[in-house]
Amino acid sequence: MNLQDVQRKLAAAGIYRGQVDGVFGPKTRAAIIDHLGAVKVAARTWSDARLEVAAMQVIVEAAGIELGEIDGYLGPSTRQGIAIFDARAKNSGKPDQSVEAWRDDLTAPQVPTSRPLPPPITSSKINAPAARPRWPLQTALEMDRFFGAKGTNTVSLTLPYTMRVAWNMEKSVTRFDCNRKVKESLERFNSRLVDVVAHGRRRPRPSRSTLVYPSVALPYLAPPPCLPSATVAPAVAQRSA
User: Fold this and answer.
1) CA angle at residue 137 from 135 to 140, to 5 degrees?
2) Given this model, what pLDDT does residue 192 score?
3) pLDDT at 85
4) What is the pLDDT of residue 31?
5) Is 17:11 a contact under the CB 8 Å cutoff?
6) Are 232 and 173 in contact (CB under 8 A)?
7) What is the largest CA-CA distance in the chain?
8) Which residue ranges of the chain lie beneath pLDDT 50?
9) Which residues contact 186 (CB under 8 A, 6 or more apart)?
């Protein structure tokens, strides 16, 4: 999908009356802002690039492909949604399993373990589990059996540091929802991460408001395990009194 596709869709809806030329001019901007307003997204102050992404998000959502919040940021959910939309467009509107199917462990190539698994992680605040967790295979069936239906069985997880969303570094994250069965492991991981950073820099364990972190990319765990993907802020999380 590109800007011409956006212009074409808006023109077909009677919102855009300019040329379908892929040029982001005043008419295109006005049409996108009006279209976003119709779905209750206030975007008049957004940049042209953000408006273009938001317009694509609305088009993808209208096609029945769930993305989440219409925010104009090109995150992993939006990238995947656009890829699905484009694949369906090339496949007469039908789902393309090569793009949409879950990658099952049973069919994925097996990668030999390069080294033994480490012992359970402990931290200064959270002890290791009594037994190593037994996680399911990454097949749609096994994941649903273990975690429950997507979007269910969720709890809130509070972070011991401030995170920055990788595709929108202005947005801070201090808590998010995750599946109940992964919460303990995530708490243990996050607490251990704080210890590793503090000890690696040879200073006491920092307080929550003065953490200094290198850029650490955390894995994206699609629902139901955990949302969202984020990057630990690479700067001091300063807070005013």
Assistant:
1) 120
2) 81
3) 94
4) 96
5) yes
6) no
7) 65
8) 202-241
9) 157, 178, 226
Query: Residue type for 39, please?
Result: V
What does the pLDDT read at residue 5? Answer: 94
Residues contacting 218, CB < 8 A, separation 6+: 163, 229, 230, 231, 232
What is the DSSP-derived secondary structure letter of residue 235?
A: S
Give the number of other CB atoms < 10 A from CB of residue 94: 9
pTM above 0.85, yes or no: no
**Burial profile 22-37: b = 16 or more Cβ within 10 angstroms, e = fewer:** eebeeebbebbbebbe
The one-letter amino acid code at 6 reads V
> Tokens for 154?
């969720």
- The encoded tokens of residue 90 equal 């090339």
In angstroms, rounded to a whole number, what is the distance separating the alpha carbons of residues 174 and 232? 11
Predicted confidence at residue 106, as pLDDT, reads 59
Residue ranges in the chain assigned as alpha helix (H): 3-12, 26-38, 48-62, 76-90, 97-100, 140-147, 183-200
